[in-house]
Sequence to fold (543 residues):
Amino acid sequence: MKKELGKILRKAPAPRSRGEAAYYLLAPAAFALAQLYYIRSAHIYFYHSLPLPLWAALIPPLPLLALEYAATRLIEGRRLGMTPAVRFGLYARLLFFAALCGLFFFYPAAAQGADSVFLPLVGLWHFVARTVWAASPLPAAAAGAAIAAVYWLLTYRRASFRLTATILLPGLATAGLFSLLYFFPESPLRPHRAPPAVLEKIFPSPGLVPADGEAWPAGAMFPHDVYAAPDDSWAAASFGATFGPKPSPPPTFAWLDLRGGTYRSFREGTQVRRFSSECADRLYFAPWHRAEVLEYRPGAGELRRHPLPPSSAGSPVNELFSVHNACGRVFALNNVNPALFELDGGGRLLRALSLHEAGLLEKGSVVFQLIRNPFRGTLLLAVYGRDPGASDRERMALGWGALPGRRILELDERTFSLVNSAETGYPSMDLALSPDGKRLYAPGVFKYGIYELDAATLAFRRVIPSPSHVRSLKFSPDGKRMYAAAYLDGEIVAYDAVSMARLGSFYATPRPSALAVTEKYLYVAGAGGLFRIPAAELDGALR
Fold:
């Protein structure tokens, strides 16, 4: 083995011409890109062709494995000959790509119809990779330089470790950059612009002390949503880490008395995602992994618990994503195994709908957001999942610009019947209705741009230029501004609400995830905490 390793590390024969040198320099990277592009493309079409028999998953791997065999013959075999060491490398790479095929082809075929959050999302890996590399430019440049050095020294000069240099090391670097963004968002390795002096940090802060003795744990914050009382006397926020170690039990909801200088925190043992309210007298939210809605009356020291059905369409209700308080009616939306529930103000269940049984979504689809359109008496849902009623031709006809499954549904709030639906070019983690009720805005996950739709028909109107991966959109109460929170660079972008012209931006906090706007303040929740900036100072803060 040691002898064979020595042969692998031995310098390969020098190219005989400039053209041959360029070929051996570029071919390994070109083949790796072709393989990754094939996996991405074939997975999309395979997933949107389901249901298929399990044996159909044997077909897409064949071109990929043939491509790897050709790459070995045309690169290492041509330069070194088909030696035992070269054949060993070929077998190792074939096993690696076979494992990837298990993830992208066998897993979707075997898990179709299951309640799996990963089934519709596994094909988004290339967006995640691009996002985390763009989020930390300096570490990304250092990682890229190190990978390039390995590529030059081993893959080009020694015609070895092609898979390591082109896929494995970039994959490890991507995981490291993700950890940096997620767990160390305020690291000096990720430089940010200075926030405006008028931006005030209100939580955690020395000005707020725990009313119940439960001190907030130190470390990065993972906020999901924020609500501010119209008179700015208090605010509330939801929290929870999705990955990695967590405090036990983690604080998942906080109510902040901004005038009294105290706060109350609640630990539900699981994260709390989206919540919104049209009334300030009470809030409703849901723990992620329990079938119940929690009611909180501002200032109270305890929660009221309202149970939901433990199952829907034969599967558990245990990933409640979004809860909306419509002043006497409460709407709650389950994520995987999408199900919609309506409760009255006292927590009594009034109506339930399985979106799968209603023929709107396949089981395993993912729901990102729920908002209400009071002008039309409808509910708007941002979803990522396949329409079970679409034909294969309809699923493929949209092409790359608007892949099926990335949709917005509009349901009648009284009957839960479908009113409108729209295919969009990418999934959205938030929805925002213009103050006049005529336009709907949906920012793209992992993408640049905000979709503008006609609120009455959900017809596409245009794409508003924006930073990548906007996580939250909010309009000002006077209807003159729209604000967008850019998750990657910490910028809050202001738009003219009529023309949608960009007015400027300011840096607030790493990973801003949620916004709230009152007449006097704009609130921002991110990894650095909860901040607010006076509305009267916003124009001066924009750059």
